[in-house]
């Protein structure tokens, strides 16, 4: 199968734009909507909920580590390429079968978070937040793999990615602002139940779609079997997550880690570990012939293939993708607590996160989706880094202004426009790095690793803010995003190899 050589073409604009697939855009708008609703509920909204219940800022920072789960999706992503969900996959196909299971997982996790919205036991809150993050990520893995299979080229990816992110960011904004407005009016339980109902809406749409599996029939038996199998899978996943969480918390308590512990040095050490391991393994990977066990393995073969193709250039790629979205991720969890501390109400934050954020994000995504089909990826990545950094610097500006809802709208709009633009460009770029032989696993690995370093540091964000203050924190996060531009000339020199030119 032909392999994509995206980095080699960074300086070249794509060929003439392909015809727009409007049905595909509509489908991926729905899938983006399905994945976007839950995200703020285990990140920004959860941070404000914990703050409202008097949880220490350092502990709120620790909860940002729930967002590490999407960075580890490469651990279970190969399962989605290899196995099918009983019932669902028989009628709807393997990819949609996993999407439907993930939808049920998202719904049940949100309901559980609603029923424990008092946060009386933070361990239980963390359990359901982790399950919500897990099933949200699983939905994204299945949808991304299907997208890369259906639309392999840069000019095809642009409109589909834009539609997907319109749905995703629209749902994020609707969930974030809607949850805050509902929480201010009726409490956190009502807010989470409402978002659970909204997040479940795409499930009947997926269930009503026609089968694309040859010879598939009997929709109702497939649905019933799929739901029964899903209940068993959801229960087993919850039990396994609780057991793993208990072990981790016990180890942390034994090591003396609590809200007063300075975890930043340990986090930085963990951030360096993946790079050291990759560098140590690369010489053996580069020498591996096609029949080598590590290249044929169903579990690690897709990841070995990435390093085999890019060699030591993979380290440069990994460093770049780790920095590119740094500012957005660091700002995500602590921007809302900072705004709340400035004196803004939940309703004011919710209004800013509704129409203003939605319009700004949609504009950023749409502009990037259009420009990426006409301009070289180098320039698109550079512009994305700049506008994302400006969004972070906007929080520093807001912190030094009098409380004004209009100024909050300006800062929120700048942040969401930058996030939308940089996010759309980044998705297309990572999609082009993937070998079409392993779309699900390799894209999961790239997106997971891209957010591993930022989310590790985000978990220590509360501790960092207590030492350097909000202003310096957001200045630092914006500067780190800008620093990614330094890598662009190096990326243009990296070319993947194939079996023919090895």
From TrEMBL:
Keyword Transmembrane part of the UniProt annotation: yes
InterPro entries, A to Z: AmpG_permease/AT-1, MFS, MFS_trans_sf
Predominant cellular place of this UniProt entry's protein: membrane
Keyword Signal assigned: no
Membrane topology of this protein: Multi-pass membrane protein
Segments crossing the lipid bilayer: 28-48, 55-77, 97-115, 122-143, 190-208, 220-253, 265-285, 306-324, 379-397, 417-434, 441-461, 473-492
Taxonomy, superkingdom: Bacteria
Cell compartments where the protein resides: Membrane
GO MF entries: transmembrane transporter activity
Annotated Pfam families: MFS_1
Keywords, ordered alphabetically: Membrane, Transmembrane, Transmembrane helix, Transport
GO-annotated cellular components: membrane
Coiled coil: none
PANTHER family documented for this protein: MAJOR FACILITATOR SUPERFAMILY DOMAIN-CONTAINING PROTEIN 3, SOLUTE CARRIER FAMILY 33 ACETYL-COA TRANSPORTER -RELATED
Similarity comment text for this entry: Belongs to the major facilitator superfamily.
Protein name from the UniProt record: Muropeptide transporter
Protein's organism: Sphingomonas mucosissima
């Amino acid at each position: 199968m032909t392999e994509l050589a995206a980095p080699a073409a960074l300086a070249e604009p794509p060929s003439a734009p392909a015809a727009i697939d409007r049905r595909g855009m509509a489908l991926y708008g729905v899938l983006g909507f399905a994945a976007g609703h839950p995200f703020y509920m285990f990140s920004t909204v959860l941070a404000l909920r914990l703050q409202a219940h008097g949880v220490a800022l350092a502990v709120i920072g620790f909860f940002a580590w729930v967002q590490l789960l999407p960075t580890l999706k490469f651990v279970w992503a190969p399962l989605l390429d290899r196995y099918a969900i009983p019932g669902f996959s028989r009628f709807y196909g393997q990819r949609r079968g996993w999407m439907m299971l993930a939808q049920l997982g998202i719904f049940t996790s949100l309901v559980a978070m609603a029923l424990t919205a008092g946060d009386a036991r933070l361990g239980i809150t963390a359990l359901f937040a982790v399950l919500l993050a897990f099933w949200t990520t699983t939905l994204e893995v299945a949808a991304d793999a299907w997208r890369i299979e259906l639309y392999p080229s840069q000019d095809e990816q642009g409109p589909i990615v834009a539609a997907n992110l319109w749905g995703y960011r629209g749902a994020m904004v609707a969930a974030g602002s809607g949850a805050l407005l509902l929480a201010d009016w009726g409490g956190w339980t009502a807010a989470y139940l409402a978002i659970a109902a909204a997040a479940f809406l795409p499930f009947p749409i997926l269930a009503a779609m026609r089968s694309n599996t040859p010879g598939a029939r009997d929709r109702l038996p497939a649905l019933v079997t799929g739901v029964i199998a899903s209940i068993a899978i959801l229960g087993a996943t919850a039990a396994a997550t609780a057991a793993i969480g208990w072990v981790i918390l016990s180890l942390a308590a034994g090591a003396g880690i609590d809200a007063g512990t300075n975890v930043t040095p340990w986090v930085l050490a963990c951030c360096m570990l993946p790079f050291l391991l990759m560098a140590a393994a690369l010489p053996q990977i580069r020498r591996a012939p096609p029949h080598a066990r590590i290249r044929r393995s169903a579990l690690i073969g897709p990841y070995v293939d990435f390093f085999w193709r890019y060699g030591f250039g993979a380290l440069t790629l990994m460093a770049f993708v780790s920095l590119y979205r740094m500012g957005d991720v660091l700002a995500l969890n602590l921007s809302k607590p900072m705004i709340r501390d400035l004196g803004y109400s939940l309703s004011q934050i919710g209004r800013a996160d509704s129409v203003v954020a939605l319009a700004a994000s949609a504009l950023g995504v749409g502009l990037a989706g259009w420009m990426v089909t006409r301009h070289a990826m180098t320039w698109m990545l550079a512009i994305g880094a700049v506008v994302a950094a400006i969004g972070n610097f906007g929080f520093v500006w807001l912190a030094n202004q009098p409380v004004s809802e209009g100024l909050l709208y300006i800062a929120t709009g700048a942040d969401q426009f930058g996030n939308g633009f940089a996010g759309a460009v980044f998705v297309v770029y990572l999609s082009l790095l993937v070998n079409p032989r392993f779309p699900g696993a390799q894209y999961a690995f790239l997106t997971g690793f891209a957010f591993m370093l930022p989310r590790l540091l985000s978990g220590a964000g509360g501790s960092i803010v207590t030492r350097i203050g909000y202003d310096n924190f957001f200045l630092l996060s914006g500067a780190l995003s800008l620093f990614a531009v330094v890598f662009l000339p190096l990326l243009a020199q990296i070319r993947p190899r194939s079996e023919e030119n090895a």
